[in-house]
Amino acid sequence: MAETTETAPHLLSLVPKAAGKQTMKDFKSDQEVRWCPGCGDYAILAAVQGFMPELGLAKENIVFVSGIGCSSRFPYYMNTYGMHSIHGRAPAIATGLATSRRDLSVWVVTGDGDALSIGGNHLIHALRRNVNLKILLFNNRIYGLTKGQYSPTSEIGKITKSTPMGSLDAPFNPVSLALGAEATFVARTVDSDRKHLTEVLRQAAAHEGTALVEIYQNCNIFNDGAFDVIKDREQAQEAVIRLEHGQPVRFGADNGKGVVRDPATGDLAVVEVTPRNEADVLVHDAHAASPTTAFALSRLADPDTLHHTPIGVLRSVERPVYDTLMARQLEDAVERQGPGDLGALLAGGDTWTVAG
Predict the structure, then answer these.
(1) Which residue, 79, 78, 153, 150, is CA-closest to 115?
(2) Number of domains in the chain
(3) Are residues 204 and 273 in the same domain?
(4) Domain residues for 198?
(5) CA atoms of 246 and 293, how far apart (whole Å)
(6) Distance of CA 94 to the CA centre of its chain
(7) DSSP 8-state class, residue 120
């Protein structure tokens, strides 16, 4: 290899390349989209492709990393860089990419099985580190790719091929899990609500650090109708709580219901709003330093009926981003000690040769 006097750019100086005018078509790959007819993944793909031009980034500065599952076909269908990686490890691979190439917009696409079962540890550590990643967690409450086994989000009693007498496992609430892992941005949306999904994507993309977006996604083959109660217009009025920062948490017909805090326990409860208790209705603060109230909101959802399910941004706070902190450490090390020497490190006094 010919020698060069060029040096690698410092991590802190890496900046993404701006793009000219783009359209949704620019982000569609030449690959045939192959999901089951009627799958919610089609709607999510269309929403993401339609949103990508808003980033204003060249396609070579955008990367989608997936694990294993139906959702993990996603990188094939995006006309960007991408990697279809291994089961549960997408957050780990994306972490390495985001920290070494700070000029990239890195997106993780995963499912409830991929992210919360074999990938559980990778997910929570990416969240707590606050790596600059956007994680789209497709939740259909079933294993679809392997033909209908129960998943970590399946409700208790779920009859599947792997639980013929009903699941005994208490399901994860992905939003609660993310908040417990100190994620700085946590949101929930629905595959069939294009406007809401796009707005949540917009806020996630603008966030500095890890953003986790849970997307309720229908699997019409192995778990059809799992989210009908929050998709049907009439039922959704009573079931869905639409969160907006700075607005009272009210829902139902004519906003007749609201969320209040029980002064005795500190828990949140749903009440009929009256002139007497209207002033007690919680005002949503997505930027609150403590995740306590966001966590309490996430626990309102009933895992069996999905009544009182909050959607929208539950938490969005600022915290130092891992990528930037790491880049500064490396820059400081180079300034103090000069460039590293990998060969000298490998041949140093703290290495041994083990004879066979």
Answers:
(1) 153
(2) 2
(3) no
(4) 16-247+284-343
(5) 14
(6) 13
(7) H
